Amino acid sequence: MPGRPALPRPTSPSPRAWRAVATSALALAAGCGTLDDWPDEAAVEAPIVDGMRETGEPAVVALMGVTGLCTGTLIAPQLVLTAKHCVVPEGAPGPIAPSLVTVGIGDRWFGATRSLYVREIVTTPGPLRISGGGDPVGTATGTDIALLVLRQRAEDVTPIPVRRASAETLMSSPATAIGFGMTRAGTTGDKNRQDTTITRVTPFLLEAIETICQGDSGGPLLVENAGVREVAGVASFGVYSIASEVGDCPSDADYWNRVDAQLPLIDLALLRAGECPPSDTPREELCNSLDDDCDGETDEGCLAIGEACTADDQCAFGPMPEGAAASNDPTPVQCLDLGDGSRRCTIPCDATSPVGCGSLARPLGQGALALDGLYCRSIAGCEGLCAPGSAGTAGNGEACAADTDCASLRCTSVGASRVCTTPCVAGSGACPLGEACSALTGATGADACGLCVGAGSFPSGRALGEVCDDPSQCDSGMCQAVGPAGTPSLCTQACDNDGGCPATAFRCEGGLCAPGPRGGLLDPCREESDCIRSATCVGDPGVRYCTIDCDTDEDCGTVAHCDTAQSPARCVVDLAPAGTACTSAASCASGACVEGLCALPCDPRAPCAPGLACLRFDEGPFCATPSTPPVPMPTSSCGCRATEARGPGLAWLAPLGIVALVRRGRRRRGPTRSLTRA
Fold first, then answer.
1. Which of 15, 527, 623, 672 could in theory staple to 612 by disulfide, Cβ–Cβ 3.0 to 4.6 A?
2. How many domains does the chain have?
């Protein structure tokens, strides 16, 4: 070999005859390299060990942000095959964070023409372990394999598939190695190729002589199969004879992990990347969140959420096969009892938000699936399951037989009766003005969930945002007028900034926690501080709203446009914002006109913006501009809160004065009391 005398390769290597290179247990000639010496333009012809400079092969990629310099191969549009030691540090129980790895497409590590980012790393189980004894070849585990699932597909790059046939027949076969590793000239970071011959096949490894070096780790060993190039091996390590100087390039013998020995792991990663692993026999579609029959559709013919079932494997987007699901995958659809003895395909939901079953999160980066005709049925405390049904017309306190009779989608047993109620979370500030959450203040888990009842039921212990007449009624010991003009005093607490108040439900205003977060685009405002930092309060007195700078109409959503005549250009409303006068829902950006004012439905997950308060109307609770203090709600003499989680059949509410849940029927400003939807 030019520039270096040939060295004999031991035929019976002893532990002393093998010396490792690179870091720790890897100590590998093909191990991850460094970029201490950047290649210059005069050295670009230097090959990986006497091969040639490769300016093509876009499917062979550079890995950046890993445990050094490594190489990989795009084996599917969204999947890169590489070595485990490139992404699992020595002794670590698992891989590094996917966000730390970048895949570079191009012919140079430094200055890749395009970068792709990693969503997930799939590796063989456990810590890194390449071999288990003094002979690294004879005791090799064949587990130095990892796969990187990308966040986006590289549609313009033709992948190189893995070889599925046994590698036992590859002895003496010609092969090609490609990588970004160190050359004999000492340069690193250019893509080079080397034609070689497979000189040995073990149960887990393929061997070639003097071919690769540090930085080529994870790169492919390519072979021809019926005219198609395939990846037969993944570069893992090299060994040196006693006479060699450890660290010289190349090592005396180089080794690649056989991919045919790891096909189950590779097929799992293909599934995670949204691909259908090839098969020699037709496969039946199963209800497991995968495209089993490779027809481009997932779980066709399976039962939808809400349909009656007897087992999980009947439900579309059901549990994935063992080992296929990742820790960040959403909860699969399951066949569960909905609390009434019926078993249906369903998913968990937040019982405090009965309307929260509008979409299904799917695994494998498939995106959300829109759902219709479902609501969140309360099962126990804050826990719920999606069930068939839609909101009825009965208001709070009215008689009901089922959740779907109620506009609130919650029908609760109270003694011998069942009435419509509104669920809530303690301290969330989500109950309508004049009401309080029956759950124990400061509780967590199931104990944090209750129902909205008249605040007068609690002479003490009222939470932030609940009405008060005296500081002794509040848990915080502070009762102040902190809401929008026209509201009574509310329980509050001192703060220095928004972070000093409960997240999302309150903001810090004048040193006190006030209900509602700062407003975003089109939320009503009175002054600049009512809006989030990126927004500005604009408009005429009485019709002021938060807006943002814009470049095009697309920046402004569907109910506003970009007024480029202003400097700077800002989003302006096409329809009336919440809190302004209306005669029909069609004139309101919110799609609701309540008692002559544009309004938004109250949502526990999105509290009312500054200038609005959650008020209960005949049609339900809405965020609206208060004009006068609310009508006092009826109370009971109990003065207690729920202290334990309850499911359906809540007879315990009787002493709280469920009469407090009757409709107020209060007339507001404006010519109409009806609610219409756009």
1. 623
2. 3
